[in-house]
Amino acid sequence: MIPRLLSTASLALVACFVSGTAGAQQPAPQPAPQAAPQAPMNPKEAKAKFAEKFAAADTNHDGKLSREEAEAGMPEVYKNFDKIDTRKKGAITQKQIGAYFAAKAKQKAAAQNPGSLN
Predict the structure, then answer these.
(1) Predicted pLDDT at 88
(2) Residue 74 lies in a domain
(3) Which residues of 49-63 are buried (b: 16+ CB within 10 A; e: fewer)?
(4) Residues 41, 84 contacting (CB under 8 angstroms)
(5) What angle do CA 70, 108, 17 make, to 5 degrees?
């Protein structure tokens, strides 16, 4: 059950970061003609995509995102910066971001399946 939860959390995390505007209502983009449907990312691909996005946002390459770096490069992280920065250091790591969105995905899964033990 834990690998399945981690897989779900990884995919939810990447979906938030790749879209950049997870909650915004926008007209759906029109698919390119003859575009083949994309398969969902597996957890390994999702983690690699997140690491790539984080590295691009971490402009000073210190392994952490400041509020300004998050605002410029990872808008969904910026929206939740204060919730993610539980230590109130003014910077957050990949691990903190992953833990926050994994917990959020777990809460969502529990809300959708209240009879579950996890």
Answers:
(1) 96
(2) yes
(3) bbeebbeebbeeeee
(4) no
(5) 25
Query: Distance (Å, rounded) from C-alpha 118 to C-alpha 101?
Result: 16
pTM above 0.70, yes or no: no
Cα 118 off chain centre by? 21
The answer to whether residue 101 is domain-embedded is yes
Task: Name the residue range of residue 102's domain.
Answer: 2-19+42-112
Digit-by-digit pLDDT tens for the chain (118 residues) are 444 544 555 555 555 555 554 444 556 666 555 666 778 889 899 999 999 999 999 999 999 999 999 999 999 999 999 999 999 999 999 999 999 999 999 999 999 987 766 5
**Is 36 part of a structural domain of the chain?**
no
- CA dist., res. 96 & res. 47, Å (int): 14
